[in-house]
Amino acid sequence: MSNFQSQKQLVRRYYDALDAAESNGLIEVLEQYTSKDYFWRGYHPFNELTGPAQVGQNFWVPLRQSLKHLQRRMDVFMAGANTLPDQDGVWVVSMGHLMGLFDEPWLNIPPTRKMVMLRYCEFNKVEGDQITETAMYFDIPHLMAQAGMNPFPDQTAAQLVQPGPMTHNGLMFEEQDPAEGEKTMAAIDFMVNDIQTWRGGEQEESLVDELRRSWNEDMIWWGPTGIGATYTIERYAEQHSGPFRQGLKDRTFNGHVCRLAEGEFGAFFGWPNLTVTPNGFMGMPPSDTPGDMRVIDVYRRDGNKLTENWIFIDLLHFWLSQGHDVLAGIDAEHKTNIP
């Protein structure tokens, strides 16, 4: 059984080269570490890109030109084989913030000339000595909030720059005990399969009682800007899980592209994970139009249950499907047209 060390080392070399390169050298780094048919999935407005040149020109070069002295601050780093029965391959996952000085506009967002932190999570599929696929989600509304903008109505939970794991053990550069990863995967699988509404059944118990089967009482849900972060099962039920189930109807679970675990941590992503119809979600108007939610979840397990969860949801893509183009709505006074 692979210990995934070669794949981890490849991604770490890639990050070192990418982070050290000047803007005019970024594409060369991508060409060195990724395949010619490299497939990149990203947060709106980037979406799907193919090939190292396209990824560099559309995402990395403009970002690095806007966020000067960019610094990668990782909180989680892990690898594992995709556990989904219809998928394969080894993926390396990193999560944290890209920090820099916001000196030039990016995506119409006005610069602050102050340090900002762009939340990110990235899945890299490694085949041989190349990265062949990437899913990289980042919280653009979180960056907007740091720039003094309010892209959505008041959220139900807290707006924070989010820390890494409370235990500070998420950077798994060394080989891990496979048994610990198996425990984490079992906890994640149990939680996913225990969500009553994904099975279409009627809820016969309280939401808090359902959550207690999968989560420790002192759980923390580190959600995206527009929803926020919330602490303890009862507040999570009140400030996110309850509003989510009430505010989104006709929910369809589309499955995941990758699901893995290593040590006390695990993660998955979908493209999209869910198709839902908003019915008064996030303070936005109801709709009859279904929309897709692209989501990354990163988990920390404590004992036999989950205890921390970092969430990335492409809310710009979802609300665009409802006719709300957040980025296009930035006006001269640096506000948006979202009611």
Percent strand? 25-35%
* CATH architecture heading of the largest domain: Roll
One letter per element, helices H and strands E, the order comes to HHEEHEEEEHHHEEHEEEEEEEH
> What's the CATH class of the largest domain, please?
Alpha Beta
Q: Give a short account of the largest sheet.
A: 6 strands, mixed
What percentage of residues falls in helices of 4 or more residues? Answer: 25-40%
Total beta strands: 15
Number of helices: 8
- CATH fold category name of the largest domain: Nuclear Transport Factor 2, Chain: A
Output mean pLDDT: 93
Question: Strand order, biggest sheet?
Answer: 2-1-6-5-4-3
What coarse outline follows from CA principal-axis ratios?
A: globular
Secondary-structure-based class equals alpha+beta
Total domains, how many?
2
What's the helix and strand layout?
Blueprint: H1 5-20, H2 26-33, E1 34-42, E2 48-50, H3 52-66, E3 67-81, E4 90-102, E5 115-127, E6 130-138, H4 140-146, H5 178-194, H6 207-212, E7 215-222, E8 229-231, H7 233-247, E9 248-253, E10 258-262, E11 265-269, E12 274-278, E13 291-293, E14 295-302, E15 305-313, H8 315-320
Parallel strand pairs: 1-6, 7-15
Antiparallel strand pairs: 1-2, 3-4, 4-5, 5-6, 7-8, 9-12, 10-11, 11-14, 12-13, 14-15
Helix pairs in contact: 1-2, 2-3
